[in-house]
Amino acid sequence: MLLVLSDEHKEHLGFLPEVDSAVVGEFGRIAVEFLRKGTNPKIYEGAARKLSVDAETVQHGVEGLMYLLTESSKLMISEVDFQDSVLVLGFTEELNQLLLQLYLENRKEIRHILGELTPSLPHYHNLEWRLDVQLASRALRQQVKPTVSMKLHLEESGGVKSAKVLQTDPATLMHLIQELEKALAELKTTHCRRILRNIK
Amino acid sequence: MELSESVQKGLQSLADPTLSDLKTFPVLIELAFRSLLTAHADCSVLDQPELKRIDQKLLKHCHTAATTCILEGVKQNVDKSTISSCLEDFRFDAERTDVFYITYQVMTTLLWRCPPHINDVSWRLEYPIKNGHVHKVNEPSYLIFIKQNTNNGGSSEEVNFSCTMEQLQDLVGKMKDAAKSLEKAMQL
């Protein structure tokens, strides 16, 4: 699947062949850093001064790279498709290889960052459990009443952790285990295997 | 009960009738218990109109002394005679000791809260293909809904979360460990 670049995008990336490949490499590193931690406009000014160009040109170049990387990672395009998409820009072979390397090295991480943008439920992190036995209460002595207390650790996509304390009795615990084992077994059925195999 | 000198001084101030009369004293004690029972610290807890005339520094000292004394009492699960003799040492009169102990009894029952009790679990197996931000996701994922009863008896709440197959295997493994320990313990 080829990436279709708009004219504006091509124009922004048009700045890249005018500088050294070392500088393009540096821009690539800055683009990935901005994707990880957010943009920092001061960097554009510093780079613009060193290269004797407008800060806006540098900004467009870096943003163009960021968009190229996010779109390619989102669609998970193959090496060949990436190279063909970039061919349209008319860059040198060296620059094309540099961009390809940048994409291949960072696409997994970029997909992970994009994945955090999707709305999702908190996901499972850990489970701690404790066995308690109630031996007596004000109303009744000499009891044996087992309970299992559990602390369920969950994590939201932004890294926010939470923990919920829950309690259950032995019969419900066995029921929970049975139900969840059924859920795990479902993944191994022919129906699920067929779908997982065919939709890739 | 062993209490530090600072706490002892605070309790002596609490017992002092010139500092707090029999109207203000119950308010102070109740506030001390409430500070311990609420989940989040409330900076304005001592901003009560009844306490305005008391010197703020002294008020804070008394509040700290009261909360420390309560925590020591709960830790050692003290009975009425221990608390009474302890407070008498700090010159609490009989009325104040009664007020303290009654509030202590009422509030400590609130400390014995039960976590919500799990009723049931339901699950959903999904195979996300793509979303607005990432295409070709292609990884099966489980949605787990744990139904529970809250303390208010009857009302049912849900804890919902997602997990991968490996995480679900981890969860089930840990629950099975708990069940095995339960079985071993019951055989003793």
From TrEMBL, chain A:
Q: Where is the COMM domain?
A: 123-191
- Which species does the entry assign this protein to? Hucho hucho
Q: Which PROSITE patterns match?
A: COMM
Q: Which residues form a coiled coil?
A: none
Which Pfam families does the record match to this protein?
COMM_domain, COMM_HN
Domain of life, per UniProt, equals: Eukaryota
- InterPro entries given for it? COMM, Commd2
Q: Which protein is depicted?
A: COMM domain containing 2
UniProtKB/TrEMBL annotation, chain B:
BP GO terms, sorted: sodium ion transport
Q: Where is the COMM domain?
A: 117-186
Its lineage reads: Eukaryota, Metazoa, Chordata, Craniata, Vertebrata
Family statement: Belongs to the COMM domain-containing protein 3 family.
Which species is the source of this protein? Hucho hucho
Cross-referenced Pfam families = COMM_domain, COMM_HN
Name assigned to this protein: COMM domain-containing protein 3
Question: Where does the source fall among the domains of life?
Answer: Eukaryota
